[in-house]
Amino acid sequence: MAKLIYFYSAMKGGKSGILIPMAYNLEENNQRTLVVKPGIDTKGDDHIVSRSGAQRKIDLWIDKNESFLSDANLSRIFEMDAIIIDEAQFLTKEQVEELWTISKRLDIQVIGFGLRANFKGRLFEGSRRFFELADELNELPIIPLCKCGEKALFNARKINGAYTMSGEECIIDGSDANITYEPLCGNCFLKEVVLPEKNMQYLKKI
Ligand SMILES: [Zn+2]
């Protein structure tokens, strides 16, 4: 039976550098593969681009109000052996449930690539549902490093170079010139992002 698989990391974990050759290898082995991106992710337009310069055109955009089980999407999915989703943290929980159903009822392998947590240190909606439903959870082997040299688990947001815990969850890297993201370890995230904005009372609420 096909599996629902989730590969996750902090930002700069080399997701695209693994996703693109994986899609290539599947297709080379005659596995018809649908490469999907959530509609919110406009970075790279209709291509997934890795830092090494490799590219893969996507086959389907999925908006957050759209269903994988719509007639139009299902007619394409029926033809497939595998589905790969980039930036899968941006999927809704209902969409991840649909993918789980597709893997189990249609016997189509579904592989999501995404971030674990948002800039506030909380699971994205899509990531949470993958963690709950996936047959396999894999942390990507390329571990992004914090500036202190430790393994980075958090994606801190900066506005004009200053860390912030405020704002919308989904602001795509590169879509606003004033906003950047930085992978941080737990210690640096707590010290430099969480505590500067809150007093120690906040610790009691974590
Ligand atoms: Zn650190």
CATH fold description of the largest domain: Rossmann fold
Rg, rounded, reads 18 Å
Ligands, deduplicated? zinc ion
What is the overall number of helices?
Answer: 6
List the uncertain runs.
none
Largest sheet data: 6 strands, parallel
For the record, what is the CATH homologous superfamily label of the largest domain? Answer: P-loop containing nucleotide triphosphate hydrolases
Number of strands: 11
Main CATH class of the largest domain: Alpha Beta
**Roughly what fraction of the amino acids lie in strands?**
15-25%
Shape type:
globular
Strand order of the largest sheet: 5-2-6-7-1-8
If you had to describe this structure to a student in words, what would you say it looks like?
28% of the residues lie in helices and 25% in strands. The chain has two domains: 4-139, Rossmann fold, CATH 3.40.50.300; 154-205, no CATH class. The radius of gyration is 18 Å and the shape is globular. It contains six helices and eleven strands. A hairpin with a 2-residue loop joins strand 9 (154-159) and strand 10 (162-164). 33% of the residues are buried. The strands form three sheets. Strands 5-2-6-7-1-8 form a six-stranded parallel β-sheet, sandwiched between helices. Helix 3 runs parallel beside helix 4 (125-133). The chain is an alpha/beta fold and 206 residues long. It has helices at residues 15-28, 71-77, 93-105, 125-133, 186-194, 201-205, and strands at 4-9, 33-38, 47-49, 55-57, 60-62, 82-85, 109-115, 136-139, 154-159, 162-164, 179-184. The N and C termini lie far apart (39 Å). The chain binds zinc ion (ZN).
